[in-house]
Amino acid sequence: MLCVEETIGVTGAAQIPKQRGDLLLDSAVRYAEERHWDVFPGTWLEAAEGTEMCSCGQSDCALPGAHAARADWAAQATGSAAGARRLWSKHPKASVLLPTGRTFDALDVAESAGFLALARMERMRLAIGPVTCTPDRRMLFFVLPGAAQKVGDLVRRLGWSPESIDLITRGEGHYVAAPPTRVGGCGAVQWARRPTVANRWLPDVEELISPLTYACGQEAAARRARRA
Fold first, then answer.
1. What is the DSSP letter of 35?
2. Integer Cα distance of 30 and 9 in angstroms
3. Fewest CB within 10 angstroms: 131, 135, 140, 186, which?
4. Could you give the CA distance from residue 178 to residue 100 in angstroms, rounded to a whole number?
5. Of the ranges 16-25, 40-49, 165-174, which is most confident?
6. CA 90, 95, 100, 105 torsion-angle sign
């Protein structure tokens, strides 16, 4: 299995025992300043009776410490480094969330399919954008905006039914959690391929859809075989 690369400003989920405000602020500012990504602060984790709970107060929160804190999050998002500093100065422990459908969309697949696709992309020498790994064993591939409108037709042209494979597109109206955001006690979001100067220009979905569809198809076939 490929190694997960070092996250921006951190050295890995195992070394983040707490949601450190300095790392979150620094990361949010760098995403806005260096990548021109919009950012906004989400919920955060709070100590409660020997455990950590989401600041939203819901004991059954599905994404503790890693979801939008306000209904108007889309209007709150800023692409300004100064704006990011101002937002995180109010809530230093807030998760770092990135709206999709603006400067990028995200192709969301199971981790096993994601690593298989990533290996194929490297063999094919494709230009790969940033890629995250989440604690719930998902991988998100950042591509140019507009992917959400194209994926269905592209998958069908490759001979697959979009409903038969586990490939989700995050576009307008959605957001993703960015490193070093922690999700409850499960761990932190990390970079499998971190943002660099080399991948500043994101690939179009057409460039990555073939290896991703193939990998998701293999994953779907394996699931069916396990059920048989």
1. H
2. 10
3. 186
4. 12
5. 165-174
6. positive
The CA–CA distances, whole Å, from 169 to 15, 95, 129, 147 equal 30, 21, 15, 7
Name the DSSP class of 11: S
Q: Which uninterrupted H or E stretch holds 167? A: strand 167-170
Cβ atoms of 107 and 169 within 8 Å: the answer is: yes
Of the chain, the end-to-end C-alpha distance in Å amounts to 27
Task: Determine the Cα angle at 69 with ends 33 and 129, to 5°.
Answer: 40
The rounded percent of the chain whose pLDDT value lies above 70 is: 91
- According to DSSP, the β-strands at 96-99 and 175-177 are antiparallel
Q: How many Cα atoms within 13 Å fall on the side-chain side of residue 196?
A: 13
Query: Contact 2/128 with Cβ under 8 angstroms?
Result: no
Q: How far apart are CA 219 and CA 27, in angstroms?
A: 33
Q: Is the pLDDT of residue 12 over 70?
A: no
Tokens in use for 204? 């179009």
Question: CB under 8 Å to 45, separation ≥6 — which residues?
Answer: 19, 52, 53, 54, 55, 64, 65, 93, 182, 184
Tokens of 1: 């299995």
What is the pTM assigned to this prediction?
A: 0.89
Q: Which residue has the tokens 């969309």?
A: 105
**SS3 state at 97:** strand
Number of neighbouring beta carbons within 10 Å of residue 30: 18
